[in-house]
Design brief:
The complex is a heterodimer of chains A (569) and B (305).
Chain A (H helix, E strand, L loop, with lengths): L10 H15 L4 E2 H10 L4 E2 L2 E2 H8 L8 H15 L3 E4 L2 E7 L1 H8 L5 H10 L17 H11 L3 E2 L1 H6 L9 H15 L3 H15 L3 H6 L2 H9 L3 E7 L5 E7 L1 H12 L1 E2 L2 H4 L4 H18 L8 H18 L6 E2 L2 H4 L2 H7 L32 E2 L3 E3 L9 H14 L2 H11 L5 H14 L3 E4 L11 E5 L2 E8 L9 H17 L10 E5 L7 H14 L3 E5 H14 L1 E3 L1 H5 L3 E3 L2
Parallel strand pairs in A: 9-10, 11-19, 15-16, 16-17, 17-19
Antiparallel strand pairs in A: 1-5, 2-3, 4-5, 6-8, 7-8, 12-18, 13-14, 14-15
Helix pairs in contact in A: 1-2, 1-5, 2-3, 2-4, 7-13, 15-16, 15-18, 19-20, 20-24, 21-24
Chain B lengths: L50 E4 L4 E4 L9 H5 L5 E4 L3 E4 L32 H11 L3 H14 L3 E4 L11 E4 L5 E7 L7 H16 L7 E6 L8 H13 L4 E4 H9 L45
Parallel strand pairs in B: 7-8, 8-9
Antiparallel strand pairs in B: 1-2, 3-4, 5-6, 6-7
Helix pairs in contact in B: 3-6
Protein name (chain A): Restriction endonuclease
């Protein structure tokens, strides 16, 4: 399957990123670090919640493969190459120069859309500009338009995966018919579509989520170029699903594609160097003409090239105006240089030290160890005896069955992985009760009390923001905001005794994989308002409850009430 | 009025820098460290790109179907060539009906002139249509509208770049006294979430960029005030009581009112736009002469009862 990276953001921003890099670096041979610096200088990139130079410092990692900005710009660069705006230099695939086509995109300013449209239609595989995994003979976006037109005018995300992006070739009616048949079969029901996507997933050994991610950039283009619009369609079993319908503009473009002569890399390879050079000139300037550029100033050059290439065009059955061929996306660097000789761009851009050489923390972040707190367990009379009998029986059973607290806690958490709020909120309070604390949850619909539950520690309430696994498997920064508000409301409105210096708790199913932003915010809030936010995941809470039952210990009152950061076992 | 005393309807002169369509780079610059805020790079004046360029005749024109009637392009035309036709959508006059224009180079630069007067009264249909039109905009277009409204009423401001998940502050900027503000933009049903997001925004700006907490003004920019019984007001009061943070509230209707009166906003410091023990009335905060301004739409100046 064709894999388009997804650097995020909108098509507007996508073009802005290229323009920012071009305006600062055109004329030089550049590497990804140079592009990162240019994009950050243009305020178009952030990392870990920081902006500007702080973002670069945060992003820079000793292990470059984990450097978020570097990786994001790598994705941008791949797409810029696909569009023919950036070319690798012959000596290195990691050093680039800006192309004449890219320069013309920047020159178009806010009216870049028609030229972008041409460049999108110009994407073709194979291409000497970019090596992609797999063996494709495809002009993907032209093919997507044709498939949409042949499939009742629409195509959904999943149909894009099983259809045009998975086809090895779009050459000839048979290949189109085959893709259309696959899609029409999948339109029987949601289950049929899902199983077709699952089959692609298994065949390619790529997770479905990742397959879907590969469609984000193509879908953003279809939408932002005005080729398609999102609407509902029905499976043959009557159920509705979201899909993308061709707009009038999209249909007109599909008609143009059907009527065009599609010239591929291997076709161009059969031409003599002179013919190839002339064809490149004709195709490029006709492409600019279709994009609204005034090509009168190059009329003479175009006429000369057309004179050379007439026999070729006649053979292909075109006058050159309805040709699908974008030289900057289809020809080798040598052929491009022959057709469009430009000033040398061989000087390597150098600006200060390379980012790779910048001393950086291994993961690019400040030391966060102060936010990861192991529990301090102390003997407690009430530990292990509170909470509902049924829950204690369940926990005891798990402990006996598995022998280890770690395994029992993990198994218990797995049992509750699909709990909704109705089950999860009481569960959290019951676990605190087993730890020997008074704890209760708010009734649904009581908006005045924002907190989902509270736990009483030494006569004072700690509000708890709870996220059940069906709300979010991994806790997010949204919970941080809500826990902060819980504390403010409790302090302002009263109802339960509390003090500003006591923690506001967040309990969820799992801690996020990337804890950077959550921990940043916990520190930010403490620095700005001296408010403490403590985070506990279900497995940890169950672990503590099991220890309370087995060993008669509980978490130290002071540690719980002063918790700032993540409690971990 | 021209220097020679002639008056009449303005006409599109085909300005080379198309101020009705595009902002220049300097307008997007922020003071100090906040200039690194990853803002929306769009130079568009019109949030819906309804104003276009007719290359053949070198004049601007408006796609009325796409125009939301906000008045941004009107406020930026130096020659009064754009008006709200029938009080509904922007329309560019290009025929020079008063014969004021003299022949000059197309797409040339023209001298800056000062704009005064009023774009429209607040009881025209475009004002009443704002909630529907703005409410239907996607997130990116809404933030662009807000940025441009803030800029046009005189505030140095930048809204976040759509798709950037690393920075969640919707907008940052400065009052005329260079006091920073952070803003959350909410035109849907999530108004209640805006105050809690503002606390986080202030914490981030303080902790990561060293602005003192008591020198940052948090602002909710909303489409309409929620119902008078909404929790929103109580949460704003809770925040002030506990953290000493005074969250301000301004509506898009209020910003449009300032724009249409060619008025400016000093910023959000002081008592303006705060919610005290009583309820708020933005008509009293706008500094416009007409104390009894008609509300452009219900909820634009005061909570709906």
């Amino acid at each position: 399957m064709l894999r388009f990276p997804n650097p995020g953001s909108t098509i507007d921003n996508f073009v802005s990123v290229y323009s920012a890099a071009f305006e600062r670096l055109n004329g030089y041979t550049v590497n990804l670090d140079n592009i990162v610096s240019a994009v950050v200088a243009a305020n178009l990139a952030t990392s870990s919640g920081y902006m500007g130079e702080k973002a670069v410092a945060r992003s820079t990692r000793a292990d470059r493969s984990r450097d978020p900005l570097y990786n994001q710009l790598k994705m941008y660069a791949e797409l810029f190459r696909t569009l023919g705006w950036l070319h690798p230099i012959p000596q290195s695939a990691l050093n680039f120069t800006f192309t004449l086509l890219g320069k013309q995109v920047v020159a178009a300013g806010r009216d870049f859309w028609p030229l972008l449209e041409e460049c999108v239609l110009g994407i073709v595989y194979p291409t000497p500009i970019l090596t992609v995994r797999g063996d494709f003979d495809l002009r993907p976006f032209a093919f997507i338009l044709c498939v949409m037109a042949a499939c009742d005018g629409h195509l959904s995300r999943d149909e894009m995966i099983i259809g045009p992006l998975s086809a090895p070739s779009d050459r000839g009616q048979a290949n189109l018919d085959s893709v259309v048949a696959t899609i029409k079969a999948a339109r029987k029901s949601a289950a049929d579509t899902n199983s077709s996507v699952a089959a692609v997933s298994v065949a390619r050994n790529i997770q479905v989520n990742t397959l879907q991610n590969y469609t984000r950039w193509p879908i953003a283009l279809l939408r932002d170029l005005g080729w398609a619009t999102r609407r509902q369609a029905r499976f043959r079993d009557g159920r509705k699903y979201q899909t993308f319908y061709l707009t009038e503009k999209g249909q007109a473009l599909a008609d143009r594609v059907f009527a065009s002569v599609d010239l591929r890399v291997n076709d161009a390879a059969r031409l003599t160097p002179e013919e190839c050079k002339a064809l490149a000139v004709v195709a490029h300037f006709r492409m600019l003409e279709r994009s609204g550029f005034d090509i009168a100033p190059v009329g003479g050059r175009l006429a000369d090239a057309e004179a050379v290439v007439v026999p070729v065009l006649e053979r292909l059955g075109t006058d050159g105006r309805n040709l699908l061929f974008s030289p900057f996306q289809s020809l080798s660097l040598g052929e491009i240089a022959a057709a469009f000789p430009v000033h040398a761009q061989t000087e390597q851009f150098e600006e200060g030290a390379s980012r790779a050489a910048v001393a950086a923390a291994p993961d690019g972040r400040d030391d966060r160890s102060h936010l990861f707190v192991p529990p301090n367990m102390v003997a407690a009379e009430e530990a292990g005896s509170g909470g509902p009998d049924a829950l204690r029986v369940e926990l005891n059973g798990l402990l006996e069955a598995h022998g280890s607290i770690e395994v029992a806690a993990a198994v218990f958490a797995e049992y509750h992985a699909r709990d909704t709020q109705v089950a999860f909120y009481p569960l959290v309070t019951h676990l605190f009760q087993i730890l020997g604390y008074k704890s209760d949850y708010s009734r649904a619909g009581v908006n005045y009390q924002r907190w989902d539950a509270y736990v009483m520690v030494d006569g004072c309430a700690l509000p708890i923001e709870i996220k059940s696994p069906t709300e979010e498997i991994m806790l997010s920064t949204k919970a941080v905001r809500q826990a902060l508000e819980n504390k403010v409301i409790l302090l302002s409105r009263g109802g339960l005794e509390t003090r500003p210096e006591l923690a506001s708790l967040i309990v969820g199913y799992r801690l996020p994989n990337e804890r950077g932003e959550m921990s940043n915010l916990i520190d930010d809030v403490f620095k700005a308002f001296s408010l403490r936010l403590g985070v506990i995941d279900l497995t940890t809470l169950v672990h503590l409850a099991l220890r309370a039952m087995r060993d008669g210990v509980s978490i130290d009152d002071r540690q719980l009430s002063q918790l700032r950061g993540f409690l971990g076992v | 009025m021209l220097a020679d005393g002639r008056t009449g309807v303005g006409t599109c002169l085909g300005c080379g820098n198309t101020p009705c369509m595009e902002k220049n780079e300097s307008e997007l610059t922020l003071f100090g460290a906040l200039d690194a805020f990853p803002g929306d790079p769009s130079h568009d004046v019109c949030p819906t790109r309804a104003i276009r360029w007719d290359g053949q005749n070198s004049v601007a024109f408006v796609l009325t179907d796409d125009c939301i009637g906000c008045g941004l392009c009107i406020s930026r035309c130096p020659y009064g060539a754009i008006s709200l036709e029938d009080g509904l959508t922007a329309s560019v006059e290009a025929a020079d009906p008063a014969g004021l224009a003299i022949t000059g180079p197309a797409m040339g630069e023209h001298p800056e002139v000062n704009r005064s007067g009023q774009i429209a009264t607040l009881d025209v249909p475009a004002a009443a249509n704002l909630p529907g039109k703005v409410g239907a905009l996607d997130d990116g277009r809404t933030t662009l509208l807000v940025r441009n409204l803030l800029n046009e009423v005189g505030l140095n401001a930048r809204t976040r770049r759509r798709g950037d998940t690393n920075v969640r502050i919707d907008a940052v900027g400065f009052s005329r006294s260079e006091r920073p503000f952070v803003a959350e933009i909410e035109t849907g049903t999530g108004v209640l979430e805006s105050p809690r997001a503002l606390i986080e925004d202030v914490a981030v700006l303080h902790s990561r960029y060293d602005y003192p907490v008591d020198e940052i003004d948090p602002v909710s920019i909303i489409l309409s005030f929620p119902n008078v019984r909404s929790e929103y007001y109580q949460v704003v009061r809770d925040i002030e009581k506990v953290l000493g943070l005074r969250c301000r509230t301004i509506t898009i209707g209020a910003l449009v009112a300032l724009l249409w009166h060619c008025a400016t906003l000093d910023g959000f410091d002081g008592d303006a736009f705060t919610i005290g023990e009583g309820t708020i009335d933005l008509a009293e905060c706008l500094g416009l002469d007409d104390a009894k301004l008609p509300e452009p739409y219900p909820g634009a100046f005061r909570p709906v009862r």
